Fold this sequence. Notes:
The chain is 37% helix and 17% strand. The chain has helices at 3-13, 46-49, 58-70, 83-94, 105-122, 145-149, 154-157, 175-181, 207-218, 270-273, 289-304, 307-323, 351-360, 383-397; strands at residues 25-29, 32-35, 40-43, 98-102, 132-136, 167-170, 186-191, 221-225, 249-252, 264-268, 330-336, 339-344, 363-364, 366-368, 372-375. The strands form 3 sheets. It has a 7-stranded mixed sheet, sandwiched between helices. It folds into 2 domains: 3-56 and 306-397, Aspartate Aminotransferase, domain 1, CATH 3.90.1150; 58-304, Type I PLP-dependent aspartate aminotransferase-like (Major domain) (Aspartate Aminotransferase, domain 2). The protein is globular, with a radius of gyration of 21 Å. The chain starts with a helix and ends with a helix. The protein contains 14 helices and 15 strands. The site of pyridoxal-5'-phosphate has 15 residues, from helix 5. Pyridoxal-5'-phosphate binds at residues 48, 104-106, 109, 140-142, 192, 196-197, 225, 227-228, 253.
Amino acid sequence: xxxxxxxxxxxxxxxxxxxxxxxxxxxxxxxxxxxxxxxxxxxxxxxxxxxxxxxxxxxxxxxxxxxxxxxxxxxxxxxxxxxxxxxxxxxxxxxxxxxxxxxxxxxxxxxxxxxxxxxxxxxxxxxxxxxxxxxxxxxxxxxxxxxxxxxxxxxxxxxxxxxxxxxxxxxxxxxxxxxxxxxxxxxxxxxxxxxxxxxxxxxxxxxxxxxxxxxxxxxxxxxxxxxxxxxxxxxxxxxxxxxxxxxxxxxxxxxxxxxxxxxxxxxxxxxxxxxxxxxxxxxxxxxxxxxxxxxxxxxxxxxxxxxxxxxxxxxxxxxxxxxxxxxxxxxxxxxxxxxxxxxxxxxxxxxxxxxxxxxxxxxxxxxxxxxxxxxxxxxxxxxxxxxxxxxxxxxxxxxxx
Length: 401
Ligand SMILES: *Cc1c(COP(=O)(O)O)cnc(C)c1O
């Protein structure tokens, strides 16, 4: 079948909740993907950081196949021999005492909000139904009704009310705004250490440390959504590590399972996560042996292949070179590790147009918020591949499409 036929099928029978680039992918290997015509592309999006380990990593694939032959799902009505091992490995990796496994990132965010509210009522003694959670303008935490209730994007929420109360949004990167928003019923602060979907927005230095301080002073939970920034993407295990800050609640997803399977998790101390009692929360597929075996392999790949160190090195190299692109169209290049945003000037035209030209030249990247192009290749990328891509990116971004 030709590309155009796939596109027609999708447009006719599928909901139009995305506006994908018109490339029909059929195969992936490492940092590369192939379309139905056999054309090869460098993946510079990594499925929004879910593919940190690269496409179809052979070790994760082997774990998936081996586990799929043995046992895939028990539900949590029974125990399985994979989940306890992952709990221990997550604790050893992160330093958090406990974890809870879910599937999508949104579910993990919802889980963190539920446990923060329970903590507020049972530990902080906030009157029932009065807990409030502070979030930041420009946030992206997922698509459920509660989560979109505190989004600042009209498109995400306008037609989906009535919305969930109990949230207050303050400008991102401004610790004083958080201070002003706090009152006796504040339970937690939910924040992305870098706003990925918001346009790769990096807060001022010291912001996360300030949040930590505020949370300690006022007995508030610091909840970090590291679904996109965690697990090596920024050149440290967690983006919060850049400021030496340890949130009370850590939300992970995406790369947790190396792109094979939806797995998310919330990590915290026993004093918080230990508050859940049987029946209060759950998920049929959460913590299933197949997903867990995949996750264990995906985490091993991050450490065995030194992906965090590689990300710090290649990220710096890529960002420096992007920053040196000549011409009049780039407003700013910003990033950490291999999460890099190139913001185009208004007169450069839509970022989407540049992504379309990049696609034709064999590089897949995606615009976020009309003006910014995100470059976030799998963390296994090497210098040679970056050197292949740079001249193309340089040419495309200095020529108005
Ligand atoms: C992708 C993302 C989510 C939502 O994850 P889903 O798996 O799409 O539900 C939440 N927070 C952040 C920061 C993300 O990047």
